[in-house]
Amino acid sequence: MKYWLWGVVLAAAGAGGGGLTAPLAAQGTTEDLLRQAHQYYEQLEVERALPLLRQILSPAWPFEVAPAQRVEAYKYLGAALALGGHRDSAVLYFRAALERDAFTDLDPRSFTPAQVTLFAQARGLVFAIGARPVAARRFDPRTERLTVTVATTHAAALTVELRALAAPASAVLFRGTSEGLRELDWNGLLDDGRLAPPGRYVLVAHGTSTLMPTTDSSAVYVDIAHEVEPFEDTLPALGPRDFLPERISPAAATNDLLKGLAVAGATLVIAEGLTNGDLGGGLRAGSRVVAGAAAVTGGIAFAMRRSNRDIPENIAANARRRAEHLAANDGVNRRNAERLARTVLVITPAAGVGP
To answer: How many beta carbons lie within 10 A of that of residue 53, not counting itself?
Structure first.
């Protein structure tokens, strides 16, 4: 039943509930009046508490009434009427409180068995689901859990899930039959096993009553952020300038041959210039041998460089450099992965809907 229609019914119930005095003139704020009504109620001065509570719920009340204050007024009106023996009216006000807040309850230590019984009767007549706003906090998913609280007025097939608004990702926290208050722990992971990414989420509790063909739902919004230790940067990729040459170029082989020929030529020229009649032909013959050896050496070097161009010592040095570079980056990546695994989730309540 719509709230405005309930107001008409409740006003009629209150008017017929024991001929209580008319509402007083507005005195003080809503909080002041509630506090005074509580004092009268605790002192069992029900006849003085009832007009104050009705004032708060009256459309003529000039001050703002917060949702929690309205629920409190309905609850204590029901409790006060129950003390006066007005059972039907008490159930109506209890229902009004439960419709607005499924977490509403009567503590058996503070209320009489008759009041608790009437409140339980009201629970069976109205179906409502509530999800309590999530408090701001930070938690480590490895060792801690985030507790969320939901409630149903009576037994229901209930599903509670946390949904990301920006992507099709969710975590089902509960699915089954539930009644009354239920606390659920969340480990920070989505259903696919991933840590919940940063963004805005909605905690939705929705279900169907087991007593009547009625459904209800409740939603609260939270922002999730990640708190991660700063990452290390990996070493830049190695470039050509970071390595020693591993093969001899064809030009180097040719240079060896040319060097050998140059040495041979120079030897012959020097020998011819130094040779004279007194020294005879011995020097000339020796120079020719040296020149020939230089030429042969250059040719051998040329042939060897052409057939085997690898430089083993440079290849080994470059391999060591690559291994050291890879090991350094592997260490950085490992430490960064460890930092990522220590990610802390920061939970902040969010108002409204949307990203």
So the answer is: 29
Inter-helix orientation angle 3-15/67-83, to 10°: 30
Mean pLDDT (whole number) for 42-50: 93
In a shared domain, residues 44 and 95? yes
The predicted-structure confidence for 168-186, as pLDDT tens digits, reads as follows: 899 999 999 999 999 999 9
Same domain, 113 and 24: yes
- Threshold 0.85, pTM exceeds: no
Query: What is the total count of domains within the chain?
Result: 3
* pLDDT tens per residue across span 219-264: 999 999 999 999 999 999 999 999 999 887 766 555 655 565 555 5
Tokens 């930070």, located at residue: 138
Is the same domain home to 223 and 276? no
Task: Identify whether residues 107 and 136 lie together within a single domain.
Answer: no
Specify the pLDDT at position 167.
84
Q: Is residue 235 part of a domain?
A: no
- Domain containing 154 equals 129-229+345-350
**Structure-derived torsion over alpha carbons of residues 273, 277, 282, 287, reported in degrees to the nearest 10:** 10
Q: Name the token pair of 196.
A: 């919940």
Q: What is the mean pLDDT of residues 44-69?
A: 94
